[in-house]
Each structure stands twice: as structure tokens, then as C-alpha cells.
Amino acid sequence: RAPRIYTRTGDSGFSSTFTGERRPKGDRIFEALGATDELSSAIGLAGEFSSEKGHTFVDQLHKVQCMLQDVGSNIATPLSSAREAHRKRTSFSEKPVLELEQWIDSYSEQLPPLRAFILPSGGRSSAALHFSRAVCRRAERCVVPLVQAGEADPNVAKYLNRLSDYLFVLARYAAMKEGKEEKIYIKPDP
Q1: Domains of the chain by range and CATH?
Q2: Directed axis angle between helix 124-148 and helix 58-75, to 10°?
Q3: Torsion angle defined by CA atoms of residues 62, 68, 73 and 78, in that order, rounded to the nearest 10 degrees
Q4: Can you give the pTM of this predicted structure?
Q5: Rounded to whole angstroms, how far apart are CA atoms 29 and 78?
Q6: 133/127 Cα distance (integer angstroms)
Q7: Eight-class DSSP state of 184
Q8: Which NCBIfam families match (predicted)?
Q9: Which residue from 68, 80, 92, 67 is spatially nearest to 19, judged by alpha carbons?
Q10: C-alpha distances in angstroms, 23 versus 29, 71, 115?
């Protein structure tokens, strides 16, 4: 018999961190985990749209989704209740941040200069990447207080910060490769 997907352990409004600590589901750790999960889902959708258009960066998006699992592991292991074994298992290095910077630089070199504020647009791939960027910014806003409180690794916040930049550049790149127009902000008449 296959195991059940439901456990009923969260029915009373509490859930467990990786360290086994029970916290209310409204705790900021679970808020950050939820935002990170939404981000991975949004990137998955952007990846599907991008795959349909044959974009070569889809493998990078898959790698990002895998890194977001590691981000979640770090968030789910509050340092205040983590043993050394937990910390080692869920540590988050600066290496993924540096990789994102390399990707950003590579795509930026191929793009026309930014001369106006770009609205989320540029075709389905681009718009989905812009949406992912907005979700990423929210995830970052949820994680920063955890880092400031010493509950999560600072590299997690750095990764999310750089990831939003990567998603922005990638959205522009997708629009360019697909020959789609990026809509720019035009100030409405008063």
C-alpha cells in the first residue's frame, strides 16, 4: 500500500522545522518557505513557456529550482535550534551567488542598453520570468528578517537578491531572442 500524502500533523495550525521544533504555521520561517516554494513554482512555469520556445537557458532555470530546495532547507533549519549536524547538512555557500553573477553578466552583454523602465511583457516566456522576479523579491523580503535575526545564512538572502536580477535580465533576453517587443513605462497625461 502506498504511503498517504497527508499526515494530519498540521491540523492544529503547527508544523515542524527541520530541527524538529514545532512552530505556528504563521511563523515567519513558514512564510519564507512558502514564498520560496511559490518562487520555484513560478520559475517552473516560466521554464515550461521557455522550453516551448527552445530557449537554451531552461537548464539554468532547473538548476535554480534545485538551489531553491537548498534555500528552503537552510530556512527550515533555524540556527537558534540547530545542532552542528543540522548546520552542516543545510549550509549554503556563496558559490551559487557567484554563478548567478556570471550568468547575469553573460546575458547582459548581449542585451541592448536599458533606457526606460520596462513593464512585464515581451511574450509569454518573458512575462513569466518577470512574474518569477516579482515572486523572488517577495521571497527575499521574507528571508531578510530571518537573516537579520541570525536564523538563516546571509548567503540565502544574497542568492535571492541576485536571482531577481538574473530573472530580470533573462526576461529581457527571452524577449529579444523571440523578437518580442518589451513594453516601456509611459507617464500618463494628468
Answers
A1: 24-74+93-109+117-184 (1.20.1200.10)
A2: 20
A3: 170
A4: 0.91
A5: 8
A6: 10
A7: B
A8: PduO_Nterm
A9: 80
A10: 9, 19, 47
- In sequence order, what are the beta bridge partners of 22? 16
SS3 118: strand
3-state helix, strand, coil in the chain (%, to 5): 60, 5, 35
Report the alpha-carbon distance of residue 72 to residue 18 in Å, rounded. Answer: 10
Which grid coordinates are listed for 53?
520556445
- Predicted pLDDT at 85: 72
Give, for all 190 residues of the chain, the pLDDT tens digit. 888 777 776 767 767 667 667 775 778 999 999 999 999 999 999 999 999 999 999 999 999 999 999 999 999 887 777 677 767 777 788 999 999 999 999 999 999 998 899 999 999 999 999 999 999 999 999 999 999 999 899 999 999 999 999 999 999 999 999 999 999 999 888 8
d(CA 15, CA 27): 9
In the chain the first and final C-alpha atoms are separated, in Å, by 66
Q: Is 154 left (phi over 0), alpha (psi -120 to 50) or beta?
A: alpha
The three cell numbers of residue 163 are: 536571482
- Residue owning grid cell 537573516: 147
